[in-house]
Amino acid sequence: MIIDAHAHFVPPAFLEDMSSQRRSFPSVKVTPENGGLRFAFAGNEPKRPVAKGMSDVEGRRRSLAALGIDKQVVGGWLDLFGYDMPADEGADWARYYNEHMLKGVAQLPFLVPLATVPLQSGKHAAKVLEEALDAGMHGAMIGTQPKGQTGVLDDPDLDPFWEVASARKATLLVHPTFGARDDRLRAYGLVSAVGRVTDTTIAISRLLYSGHLTRYPGVNLVISHGGAALAMVLGRLRRSFATAPAQNSDPAKGFKRLYFDTIVYDDVTLRFLGELAGPDKLLMGTDQPFVIAEPEPIKFVDAGKFSAKDRTAILGDTAASLFRIRA
C-alpha cells in the first residue's frame, strides 16, 4: 500500500456552510474573493484565499491515481486552524472543522483524515483531541506556533494536550505556520523557501531541549518538510547541550524518536536524512495541493537508493503503522 503521509484538504461542504453562514462564529469573518473565500480570525488580517485545489475532490482522485498512491493522509490548512481565537470559541471551531473533515472523507476511502485541535489552550486541545480520536480521526496536524503567529509548543499550558497525546499513542504531524515576522523574509519568496524551515527548526529544537520527546513517550511526532534543518544542525544542538547539560535535555535522545516526511526535493538530502535518522523514520509525502508539492514522490524515494525493505517502509508501511491505516 502506497501512502502519502503529508497533504492538506478542506471539505467542500465546510466552505459551502461558511459561505452561506449556516453556522457563524463571532471571531470568524468570511469574505468572498474571485470565486473563493478568505477567512479572518479575531480581528486580524485576512488569511490567504482558500485555493481551489484544497477542496477539488475529483482533481485529487485523478492525481493520486496517476501517481500510484493508494491512500493520502490529509490534515486541514494551517490558515484555517484559528489559533488566535478565544479558547472556548476556538475549541468549537476545531470541533466544527473536524466534523466536516470526517463527513467529507466518509465517501472518499483514499483520504485519511487528521484532526485539528485548539492549541491556544492545552486543556481544550486535550479534550478535542480525545473526542477526535474517539470519532475516528487517525491523528492530528498541529502548527508550530500555538497562539497564531506566536507561542511555543513546549509551553507548560500545553501539558494536558501532550499528556493525552502520549496516553493515546497519537501521531501528530507538526507543520510550520505561514507567518513571516522577520522582515528579512519579505522578498524573493523567502517565507516559503526559508521561513518555514526556520520556524519548524526552532519549534522542534525547543521540544528536544525541553525533553518533551522523552517526557511523553507515547507521542509519535512526524515533522514536515524533512524536519526542516534539524538534521543539519543536530551536531550543533548536541554540542550546545554538552556545554550546558544542566539547563537542557539531551537533544539526541529526542531526535531518535522523531519521524520525518520526504519532502526535501533533493535526493542527496534525502539519503543524508535516511542515514542520520534511519530509513525506518521516513514517510513519503507530497504536500498537495500546493504548487511546491513533490511532483513524483515515488520516483523521488527511489532516487534515494534505499533497500527494498526500507523502500516499502518509506512508501507506506511506516505511515500505515503510525496512522493506523488499514489496506
Mind explaining what this structure looks like?
This protein has 327 residues and is of the alpha/beta class. It has a single domain (3-10, 52-322), classed as Alpha-Beta Barrel (TIM Barrel). The chain has helices at 12-20, 57-67, 87-105, 122-135, 159-167, 190-210, 212-215, 230-243, 251-255, 267-277, 297-303, 308-322; strands at residues 3-8, 28-33, 36-41, 71-75, 111-113, 140-143, 171-175, 220-223, 258-261, 282-283. The termini are close together.
Distance between the termini: 7 Å
Question: What percent strand?
Answer: 5-15%
CATH topology, what is it called? TIM Barrel
Helix content: 40-55%
Strand order in space, largest sheet: 6-7-8-9-10
Mean pLDDT: 95
Shape: globular
Provide the number of structural domains: 1
- Assembly of the depicted chains: single chain
Question: SS-based structural class?
Answer: alpha/beta
Topology:
Blueprint lengths: L2 E6 L3 H9 L7 E6 L2 E6 L15 H11 L3 E5 L11 H19 L5 E3 L8 H14 L4 E4 L15 H9 L3 E5 L14 H21 L1 H4 L4 E4 L6 H14 L7 H5 L2 E4 L5 H11 L4 E2 L13 H7 L4 H15 L5
Parallel strand pairs: 1-4, 4-5, 6-7, 7-8, 8-9, 9-10
Antiparallel strand pairs: 2-3
Helix pairs in contact: 3-4, 4-5
Give a brief rundown of this model.
With 327 residues, the chain is α/β, with parallel strands linked by helices. The chain is built from twelve helices and ten strands.
Key terms:
globular; 327 residues; alpha/beta; TIM Barrel; 12 helices; 10 strands
